């Protein structure tokens, strides 16, 4: 399967550094606006009407941009997801001035509705190579998933059992 | 980054339509035996997206050209970030509860590293899987874990395929499996039932619900206590899970994979 699109494979590895969202802030901010628009609409059904959710959605946009900016200027590498979640945890800590307002605005945003568009993007942008790969390993992944769930449950139970 | 494809209006319009449709269908609960099959909007969005993917059905080329679909992969890296921001905002307000939860709860988080202990050797040595196994087994494959893999390797890499596979399996059958497993292991009487309750907190709302409900069903007398332990543990996993998977689970999985991969080669030679 690797031989079908070898250039794509090497491109992926080389381009990954360049693709990191914090490396191209200008482009990222534009694309981020487009995906936030999709998330905003997605939130309409089980979250809140568009206008009610607008401040919350803008807050999320700002938190992401601030997180990316921090990631950009930090001398060491941490994935942008870590910086973004850190920004959002700090902004909603009870000791933070204005955190009550932030939490109230974000309450208009449905947790699951934020993921729905992400998975739609994922489904739409899979390539032929990935379909081939999944076809080849799909049944194996079902077995692996069962062992993964079993492992985490028994692992946590074992440690907790020792400490109780 | 190919900005023209990333900002293609058709792509984003189709995503909005699919998301609205998926959200409108909503959460479906299908009772099955002792558990419940829980179907979430994100699953329909993924399936609908795959159906409209031009690489799978040529007819979809009219909706989104192959060129756009292939070049728009990086959009996922960015699309997951608003969700991560929302995710963090559930942790900040609960910081007092998390501190009150105590060291026992914190240390059992390390048990979540159990994902790869059995699954990775099995995937590499028995199933002869490649780097998909790293993505598939380093975590329980929920959204924050996907975000890490997406950031590190890209979702279209082998590791990305691995985690998306486990994600889809978990989304479809995770709640059912957790309900079955929790009640069965509780009936074996090996572990303290409170330890099992803590183990239910794996960082997925639907899985912890199914798991703790099954335990409460098994030992009705301590129902409230069990639900509290499971809830606190799950909150802690939300708070720490991202960092534990990033700084401990992923490096450990990579380390283990490097050691297992040569053994897989030997096993192949023996078979020949």
TrEMBL record, chain A:
Superkingdom of origin: Bacteria
Keywords: Membrane, Transmembrane, Transmembrane helix
TM ranges: 53-70, 77-97, 109-129, 141-163
Descriptive protein name: Permease
The species this protein was found in: Halomonas dongshanensis
Native organism taxonomy: Bacteria, Pseudomonadati, Pseudomonadota, Gammaproteobacteria, Oceanospirillales
From TrEMBL, chain B:
Residue spans crossing the bilayer: 12-32, 38-56, 68-85, 105-127, 161-187, 193-215, 227-250
UniProtKB keywords: Membrane, Transmembrane, Transmembrane helix
A Pfam family per the record: DUF3100
Keyword Transmembrane helix annotated: yes
Organism: Halomonas dongshanensis
Record InterPro entries: DUF3100
Signal peptide location: none
Lineage, uppermost ranks: Bacteria, Pseudomonadati, Pseudomonadota, Gammaproteobacteria, Oceanospirillales
Domain of life of the native organism: Bacteria
Name of protein: DUF3100 domain-containing protein
Keyword Ligase: no
